[in-house]
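Bench notes, bay 3.
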Amino acid sequence: MNISTKIEILKGDITKVTVDAIVNAANTSLLGGGGVDGAIHRAGGQAILDDCRKIIARQGGCKTGQAVITTAGKLKAKFVIHTVGPVWTGGQKDEKVKLADCYKNSLKLAVDNNCKTIAFPCISTGIYKYPTNDAARVAVDSVLEFVSNSDKIDKVIFVCFDDDNFSALGGVLHQRAV
């Protein structure tokens, strides 16, 4: 089987996707914010915030590139995996490594929690200003590497809110699948 058949790209609202785990492009505080983070917290409700507060009490938030898991509250998913993407500062501060870590650590957490399906937003391409095409390459390469070395994930869905990210991810996936 072509490994890229495990990967799908959708344009839409990640809070409406039915998967085992939805990934949240969180901030280090885990307390919600704008963009995807705010949408997931609003749609999932208080239970997500309550779990985030327990994580904060235990470890003080989440560092860039790392991931933590909570309930999904009112979402269709079982879990929300919160990961903190890097802020783009020109590529000289290990942004690529930190972004790849977001995908790898989220996938590892999904496997550790028996999740077979997972949906990712476009991490760091919004307010954190990571260049869309570069972020798409990191996202697809990180996911392809993980799923080619693990049979624990059946489907990875990239859910894009806008045309730019949708086109960038589609282009990179097509290149990698050829």
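Next record in the batch:
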Amino acid sequence: MKWIKIICVFLLVYVTIAGFLFDVPALPILNEAIRVLFFHVPMWFTMIFLLFISAINSYYYISKGRINYDIKSNEYANVGVFFGMLGIISGMLWAKFTWGTYWTNDPKLNGSALGLLIYFSYFVLRGSVKDELKKAKISSVYNIFAFAMLIPLIFILPRMTDSLHPGNGGNPGFNVYDMNSQLRVVFYPSVIGFILFGIWITNIRVRIKFLNK
């Protein structure tokens, strides 16, 4: 994991410096607030990636019955939801500067909040079962269905109705207007950097759990 730490630190330092110093396109309404893009969207990408890995480990636990898969699944979910919360908070701050309010009745906002609530229920479920094997089995099944419900809530349903977010409701996302070359040189390294950061944190948490076993 050493190479992950090195690349992660390099990318995040680059994004932090470049995100505030590089020029950004002067888009109406967004203006300088568009710099939040370098942190808000990569956090959501990181959440999706980590929760996907969590669901994969849940599947492996159901298939092979090894407790180490359940531990990994739980820790990936923990860190994934943490990044999801950061995504919600950064999005609320961005919304205040661009839409004039911290929260609107936007399908993507509501879907994201509902998706996180589904995962909060996952942690409540794990905490309510004392038997380790029973806990692992029940939560693994729930985790797979939780991820299956998260994807439509965030990516499918918002595209079927009007939304303030780019890429939804007929508003194209990541096109020349939304994502030009000025933004890409910071945005894509940010996505990679935050994903690696999430993997790094999760790996540390998993190792601690294994040491305490």
